[in-house]
Amino acid sequence: MIRTGQYADLGGGIRLHYASCGVRGAPLMLFLHGFPEYWGAWEDVLPSFGDGYYAVAPDLRGFNLSSQPAEVGAYRMREVVGDLERLVAILGYDQAVVVAHDWGGAAAWSWAIAAPARIARLVVLNSPHPIPFARDLVARPEQQQASAYMNWLRAPGSEAALAKDDFKLLEGFILGMQRGDAPWYTAQRARRYREVWARGLGGGVNYYRASPLHPPTPEAPGPAALRLDPADFRVRVPTLVIWGDADIALPVTLLDGMSELIDDLTVFRLPLATHWLAHEEPERIARLIRDFCAR
């Protein structure tokens, strides 16, 4: 059973809401969602770990019931990672197994690079390591086209546009990343997403505005102006990457070169899964995570 309505006061005016399964004191497994989701991104996976872990899925800052600071700078990765560090400490732990998707994955990569001792194992679903993502945003027209929506979201007023007509455009954002039907996106789930979105979209959109990783433009060169040393982005944590090959925003070419950046890497590809793989194949995702952690 999933328990919701829990909060951690992190200081500095930030409070995170979180859901959980299992008993505090068991090994901590932290589940991190992306845009435009909330802790419910993991509702089909979380119960699979309540027997052996304290499985916790927070609403990241800017989303749902967690604090939503207005400033764009509040959504830089160092701020998000700082939240996660404090959350783990408040829960009474020194480290966690981290399972992450989308923007949660971006935070998890940054966290693993900066503080590997805090992460026992890392599982990332369809969220690129920053080095290949920066590379392809600059060098691959296909990736620039696939990520063009990021520049639209970065523009002023995107949150208002997404909210118009009962979030019609935002729902289209989710369904447009499918190839075919989305049976997981039930009427009940659509209703809950709208309740979440009605609490505010500015925080979620600010993740895009705060990041330098977006398709370069003359006004905002982003990754084209960066000089990233791969040695500074090495991951020394045992890592499982699960990739839905049918993700139209994040093609499988982003896996190229990843093994050179991660000391202990396992990659498992799901040929038919899209960006929403945790919804489409939750039992398989749970089994892959469990097998990886038991290895």
Strands, count = 8
Helix content: 25-40%
Major pleated sheet? 8 strands, mixed
Please tell me the overall pLDDT.
Answer: 97
Strand order of the biggest β-sheet:
1-2-4-3-5-6-7-8
Query: Low-confidence runs (pLDDT<50, min 5 residues)?
Result: none
Task: Give the overall form.
Answer: globular
**CATH superfamily label:** Alpha/Beta hydrolase fold, catalytic domain
Distance between the termini: 26 Å
How would you describe what is shown here?
The structure is a single chain. By secondary structure, the chain is an alpha/beta fold. The protein has one domain: Rossmann fold (3-Layer(aba) Sandwich). Helix content is 35%, strand content 18%. Strands 1-2-4-3-5-6-7-8 form an 8-stranded mixed sheet, sandwiched between helices. It is globular. The mean pLDDT is 97.
